[in-house]
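Memo to structure team: turn this sequence into structure tokens by end of day. - J.P.
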Amino acid sequence: MDFSQNGALDNLITSFGSFDLIVFDWDGTLFDSVSPIIDLLLEAKKEQPESSQAVALKDSGMVPVLEQIITADHAVQVNDLKMLLNLEGFTSFGKPATLYGGVAELLNTLWESGQKMAVVAGRAQAEVLAEMRELNIDHYFFSVVGSDQGPVKPNPAIIHAILALAECVPNRALMVGDSAMDMEMATLARVSMLGTAYVTRDHEEYCLKRLQPWQPLAIAETVEELNQFLLGQ
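Reply from structure team:
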């Protein structure tokens, strides 16, 4: 569990009732679309990869390029990784992307409590909505904003539009995300922010490093910690 530099206990979220609106990022916060790529990359780095996909990735020469993207100071963008891999003929990544373990239960608890929730995604709205519908969680969110609908992260206009739709003032809203862009967007929109740093698992230190300068209320390193912060459990 990591706290911000000003992480006094009275700054911590103690229950979901603390905020009228919670805005979640999608990839890397609720939806685990990155770790299948990371797992494939880690296998491709082995001297003798086992899967045919990992062997092909190793032979493609893409491993150093992908590593540079993942360990760079800026936020990992799923689209960047997928685009590079797609160009090399990789269209699937071993295991299917899905919600992080425990996220479905967390969202259901929040929804049943009457918590108003929205999602700001870094991909097209239709793509994200299709994933949500397959998981039967689309009804949890009153708004799902994709990167194809106008301003993109970190433009605060996205948050401002959601606030207006929810009839919520900035100091009653919370942004939950895993990237520096999520934190910057929240800062510019003057809403509170909570970081998540479990996106790549094997690069946890890097995840924390990119979030800490923004001084979020806290950084959840696991979904269990996210539960503690949002539900007080």
